[in-house]
Structures are given as structure tokens and as C-alpha cells.
Fold this sequence. Notes:
There is one protein chain. With 99 residues, the protein is α+β, with helices and mostly antiparallel strands. It has helices spanning 43-46, 57-64, 70-79; strands at residues 11-18, 21-28, 32-35. It contains three helices and three strands; from the N terminus they run βββααα. A three-stranded mixed sheet has the order 2-1-3, with no helix packed on it.
Amino acid sequence: xxxxxxxxxxxxxxxxxxxxxxxxxxxxxxxxxxxxxxxxxxxxxxxxxxxxxxxxxxxxxxxxxxxxxxxxxxxxxxxxxxxxxxxxxxxxxxxxxxx
Length: 99
């Protein structure tokens, strides 16, 4: 049993309002809750989220601190010939022990 006169009033059907419309009801200590964003209009939940940061962190760092152009670095990698694959040398295996 809760103590008398110390707890706030509980509203089991409090209205959650977003953009002037009631979007859901929930329990709260306030009769109405006004929110700017909820799962019904948030881009992450609606599938309309756009990723703004498409460049990599290393590229941003290089550009910010002037450590060479990212275009020349990527171009140098593309222009370089691929290294020859190392030749596998077969090592002699010890003879199997006889039982």
C-alpha cells in the first residue's frame, strides 16, 4: 500500500500528443504529454532515414589535416601493380611414426 498524500496523481489513460494529434495513450503522472517526435514520424522507424556521412573517417582526417589529397592516395593504390603472390615452399614433413 502506498503512503497517503506523498504520491502524485496517476493518470492511466494519459494522452500523448504530437503535432496536435493524439498518437497514443499511456500511463503517466500528467494528463497530457506533448512530444515533437515519436516512432510514427521518426525517420529511423519510418524507413526514410538518409545517411549524411558517406565519406570515411580516415578520408575526413586526411583532408582536415592536409595530409595529402584523398584522390591522389586512392589513385596511387589503383595505379600500383599488384604484388606477385608469394611462392609456396613445401616443407619436408617428418615421417609418420610407425606403431
